[in-house]
Design brief:
This protein has helices at residues 78-87, 249-256, and strands at 5-8, 19-23, 29-44, 50-51, 61-68, 71-76, 104-115, 138-144, 152-153, 158-161, 165-173, 184-193, 198-204, 210-220, 223-224, 229-235, 240-248, 269-273, 293-298, 309-319. The protein has 333 residues and is mainly β. The protein has a single domain, classed as Jelly Rolls, CATH 2.60.120.20. The two termini are 24 Å apart.
């Protein structure tokens, strides 16, 4: 049974370059976290010469996630988290982004959902988050790091930011004992630098946890781009997922639009759903399909000012936790 309660967490003062934390209700199955972010950007003495990171306020944040008693069990680049949110949405999620170069004060908004449960599953709560110790601290967090270069090439203009307001919701129910989750989420990002043009560069997904999804982001010191990865193979020692020849990155993006209702196919990103049809039996077990990896065709970005280039991959993992998850795993991944 799924009896969902939506709890808006207590508001907190947001300070630059430090974590803002929100205490979650304890002893619950947490299904989703929702971050609603609103802020302003002011351009004066402009115009600015270019917009970066799609004009999104998410570029002004360096991390968001969930911390359990001192351990980050979910930690994502907020821009990548935005793609995860869009991929799990029933429609494109509303946002307001910077779209003009001229002087003015503009309000920017984003909504990011962290899907601990899978909204496409018949029983979303089978992967709800339950804390190891219901008495220990459990906190959502986000870090605001205001940075002009993360939203604009300012030129002669002056760009300033207002302190953002952030609301966080915890979507939960209280069925933790009789109906424990089968697996528990553990989401992290891994990064690999790109220093030159090359084909079939291996990027190993180093995890022992089950994997429900992977998200590729192309990033530079001037923000997200779309020209670092041109093609890829995705394979393990047991199975070939994309290949045997490199599949064009943009073609994979277009294909994802048949399956994902939100704006998940935004330029430079690729969301790979491995829990197809919402079924746990479809997730990938890297302990069975060993040496899980991408083989990437890459080159440094041609974006103006780009001097460091990275491929970031969000790994949406699922794990068995003794005493928390169901003792018998009723599937074979």
């Amino acid at each position: 049974m799924l009896r969902e309660t939506i709890r808006q967490l207590s508001a907190q003062n947001v300070v630059p370059n430090g974590r803002t934390t929100y205490d979650l209700a304890l002893g619950m199955r947490t299904l989703y976290l929702v971050f609603r972010i609103t802020g302003t950007v002011t351009i004066a003495g402009g115009p600015i010469t270019a917009i970066r990171n799609g004009g999104s306020i998410l570029g002004q944040f360096t991390e968001l996630g969930l911390n359990e008693n001192g351990e980050d069990v979910v930690r994502h680049d907020p821009r990548l988290a935005g793609i995860i949110s869009q991929a799990n949405a029933a429609r494109v999620i509303d946002s307001t982004r910077l779209s003009v170069l001229v002087d003015g004060t503009y309000t920017l908004t984003e909504t990011v959902l962290v899907p601990l449960a899978n909204p496409r599953a018949v029983n979303p709560a089978e992967t709800a988050f339950v804390a190891r110790d219901p008495r220990a601290a459990l906190q959502a967090f986000i870090t605001w790091s205001p940075n002009v270069a993360a939203i604009a090439t300012a030129g002669a203009a002056t760009v300033t930011f207002g302190t953002p307001t952030i609301t966080v919701e915890q979507h939960h129910d209280d069925e933790t004992g009789e109906f424990p989750p089968i697996l528990r989420p553990f989401y992290q990002d891994i990064i690999q630098p790109v220093t030159g043009a090359a084909n079939n560069v291996p990027f190993y997904i180093k995890t022992s946890r089950y994997i429900r999804a992977l998200v590729i982001q192309q990033d530079t010191n001037v923000g997200e781009v779309a020209d670092i990865v041109t093609g890829l193979i995705f394979r393990g020692d047991r199975r070939l997922y994309f290949g045997p020849n490199a599949v064009t990155f943009n073609d994979l993006q277009r294909k994802s639009q048949f399956e994902l209702a939100g704006d998940a196919a935004r330029s430079g990103y690729l969301y790979i759903d491995l829990q197809r049809g919402g079924r746990l039996s479809n997730i990938v077990n890297p302990n069975v399909d060993t040496n899980l990896r991408f083989e990437l065709n890459v080159a440094p970005s041609a974006a103006a000012g780009a001097t460091s280039n990275n491929v970031r991959i969000g790994v949406l993992g699922l794990e068995v936790v003794n005493g928390v998850t169901a003792q018998a795993v009723a599937f074979d991944a």
